[in-house]
Fold this sequence. Notes:
By secondary structure, this protein is of the alpha/beta class.
Amino acid sequence: MSDVPEEAARHDEHPFLRPVAESTSGAPAAGIGEIVRAAAEKEARQVPGWEGTLHEYLELVDQRPALARNAWQRMADMIESHGVTRPELPGGVPRWQIFDDPFGAAAAGLGEGAAGPDAIFGLDQSLHDLVMTIRAGARGLGPERRIVLLHGPVGSAKSTIARILKRGLEHYTRTDEGAIYTFDWHVDGEVIPSPMNQDPLLLVPESARPRIQSRLREIAPREDEISIQGELDPVSRFWLSELMARYEGSWERAVQHVRVRRFTFSESRRVGIGTFQPKDEKNQDSTELTGDLNYRKIAEYGSDSDPRAFNFDGEFNVANRGMLEFIEVLKLDVAFLYDLLGATQEHSIKPKKFQATHIDEVIIGHTNEPEFRRLQNNELMEAFRDRTIRIDVPYNVRISDEAEIHRRRFGRRSAPGRRLAPHSLEVASLWAVLTRLEDPKHPSLSLEQKAALYDGEDVQGFTAEEVEELRAAAPREGLDGISPRYVQDRIATCLVADKRVIGPRDVLDAIERGLGAHSMVASEEQRARYRGLVAVVREVYDVIIREEVEAAIAADEEALDRLCAKYLDNVRAYTTRERVAGDDGVMRDPDERLMRSVEEKTQIPDARKDDFRHELMNYIGAVHLEGGQFDYRRNKRLRRALELKLFEDQRDSIQLTSLVSSVVDRDTSEKIKVIRDRLCRRFGYDEASADVVLRDVAGLFARAAAQPAEPRDVDGEESEAAA
């Protein structure tokens, strides 16, 4: 155990338990008030500011045509500004790095390139489809007149995707690359902001727009051509008309009342980012989307059709030039859907008492499976279906990606004084993935083997092409099953239990207990299936820890090297029909018993031993001809076979089964301590969790000793002969 006192260890583990730090001069560090003040000043300095006349803004646009981008183009540029990781293999899917949540990573003080708490794993194909849709919309190819509909089961990261895009836009408009501008009217000592933060270029006379667009294309040609589209909102139209009348039609004098300023998006301030969530039918009101009359100002201006007496504060209005998220969009009342269809197809909304008003925004909705099925069966929703681009956002079907989600949630500091033992998150993730997979139709493939194939592991007898065929044969995999939220809830119950080390068995027990009250399990049949999968995962975990203990026992690298050299010397002598020197230096025939004891661990039948040995020697020869050196450690199958052979040779001397007894002699105790240390170094255990694993494996060996052993391959599965 560590020599660090327990209280000091607790201080290191959780930041709130640490004592107040002191500065290098010995004085106390900054207090909370000073920390807050410094942070506020830093944040204020980060908010960019610029203000000028319309003509000065036109000069800026002449230098930087990207200032005239529309919302889809700005969104596409924002995503691409974070970079993309290209796939290593041909036909792979790129990874768009914005979905690593760099904003959350920065807020948490993580290093550059680290993934944040909202990072999305395992959905690269869905995210790539989304980015390609946004890119196509930016180029004016059609998606800009559609609703992007994220469809998937509950807890599949649909809201997280939208949240990352909104944060991305907020952050982007704070950078020089993402700068965006709007304008205010300064009339008779009063400042009237553009209520929808419109682009100052909409003040330009329409007759001049084609020439401006040609000029912008010449300066900075882009695949997504920049154009000036739309017209002023009712308030700005009113003031331009009033000033033009005041100055007898002089546009030049009228726009002298315009001050252009830079602004930034902010969801909390309802600027450039809108979010709408449907309520029950009695409380739904379309004015939440398009704005409403200000009855106090009607008396002031004398008419309810005066734009100054209208609040342009609906979600469509505030999201102009940015993004609007519709939560559970298919729960909208039909009256809302008409507004939504016009907003997407025509890029306009119809506020009460006013003409259609132009909007420029990316509209992203998301929905769960039941509402989507209802949409498909509703003939009255045909127009809505025709104007949506559906992007499926399923659950993960890769174990490693699912485990990464939980790893982000349950870091070391998330539960002070508690530690998750190795494999705890992985077994929970395996169980969750198994609930989402369809039973394989292939007779020699189990469900857990299918999950292993999806996770990129090798399963004997299956190629990469066959894995793709398995995926194609089950298109709904990932759209059903257990949500990551349930798994996280069950892990959370373990972390508040009165145990310092939480192991995989604790997590699986919690998962099984919770199934009885889980509201998303529809039937007893489904509940029984999920419990059966818990039993399957327990068996998989038994295989994992047994192999780790076997590897720890056989972890003497020098002994492995000697065993491998001895095996290869005998194989070489066998294939060249020569004799080989024994340990005593006497030349003898190749040791058939030794060779077969290793080859049986790799499931090489006796009838194929000659072919295998010649192939192995040919491969080693080819490696040497290319200037390389054969290393058995790079061959997982051969290394595992050698470890199993060495383990069998040493198991009797270790007497691991004595751990289940209350009496352990000193010599055995020393050997077990060595194994425990190897488990800690190689597999990441601490002493407490290593002891638990050793006792578990001792029990497995004790039970195995009481019954005939079944032949296993190197991955711990039953052999074909046994099957």
